[in-house]
Amino acid sequence: MSAIIGTEDDVLLTRPEFWARPDRHEVFKHFRDEAPVTFHPEVAAPWAPEGGPGFWAVMRYQDVQDVTRNTKVYSNKFGTQPEEWPQTRVAALGMLHMDDPEHRIWRQMVGPAFAPRYLDSMLDTIRRNANEVIDALVAQPDVDVVSTLVNRYPVKIIADMLAMPKEDHEQFVEWTYYAFGPDRVKGNAAHHALIEYGVNLAASRRQNIGDDVMSRIVTAEYEGRLLTDIEVGGFVSLLIGAGAETTGSSIATGLWQLGKNPDQWELLKNDPSLINKAVDEFCRYTSAVVNFRRTALEDVELGGQKIKAGDKVVLYYESANFDETVFSDPETFDITRDSSKQVAFGAGGPHQCLGEHLGRREMKVFLEELIKRVDDITVTADLLRPPNPRFNMIQQFRATFAEK
């Protein structure tokens, strides 16, 4: 192991200290070049107090894609996080932790509510929320982007889509932050609160069907079967937690880079045709979801390693998004590059992110409105992330947005 990278213990992906390293992309590159599939024993950590049996870490883009698409060998149903969760929590997240045919049935039931045609009917709602956030960003200098944008913009859009009462939105902001954070105790509590709220909302909506996403979900059928209130509650937890934090972090990381690279901001401001490329680059550079786990259903060889049935296989999307064989000069933020192969929403296959079309629209509309209204972005406090092995969340980012 090189002096820069450190010892084997220094690069153990299960150690909390690793996720505080500012040079982890160097470590990921080392793995891609020298050991693309490696085994990491699990040690006790805030997100896994009991430790665990360990897992195989997959770092190269092509290997990540191959595992993701090979659903006959690699399963979702035992959990998608590296550490072990209680099976009650695994089951509660529904379709995320299912294999076909169960997963396909769920997807057919809830998928239409997130189809591009329906989401296009929500563009006015998305645009209104985007402008409300921009109002707050330009209202004062040195604004806290985390509390103003990251924790609110996507959450409120999803809340509007589900026709949640306005007075509940702030509570959802808090639950969302903790549900997918590194603190397991607070995460479990927030997760259960989201499920309980979703259960109650589903029961209430069945008595008052409208044209919102929740109404579409509670009335969705497959061969006469409806989703139960408990199943809908689990889906709400998944939707709010995974769909909100990831989009907010991606937008904020992109804004941070636009502020640090004014030439990129000028390009975008003067050429709106770059917005779609910018969205892909925001997603690639942020890699909001660091990894996803599969479990081997049979003995298999991957990256020169012999993996046994039952072994956990963790796909590092963040590493794949910085793979030099796919993205040249990957550590440079460049909104003119073609980043369409980024795997922030998954690497293909049946588990491609259901909310991808929503997330893209949220980012695109936000940038459309931002370049109309903002002349300059000045970073006043650099972006910092809390140590988190699953999500690239944001702890700090402040900036001044000068209005035109």
Automatic annotation (TrEMBL):
GO terms for molecular function: cholest-4-en-3-one 26-monooxygenase activity; heme binding; iron ion binding; steroid hydroxylase activity. Keywords: Heme, Iron, Metal-binding, Monooxygenase, Oxidoreductase. The keyword Oxidoreductase applies. InterPro entries: Cyt_P450 (IPR001128), Cyt_P450_B (IPR002397), Cyt_P450_sf (IPR036396). It comes from the Bacteria. GO terms for biological process: cholesterol catabolic process. PANTHER family: BIOTIN BIOSYNTHESIS CYTOCHROME P450 (PTHR46696:SF4), P450, PUTATIVE (EUROFUNG)-RELATED (PTHR46696). Belongs to the cytochrome P450 family. This is Cytochrome P450.
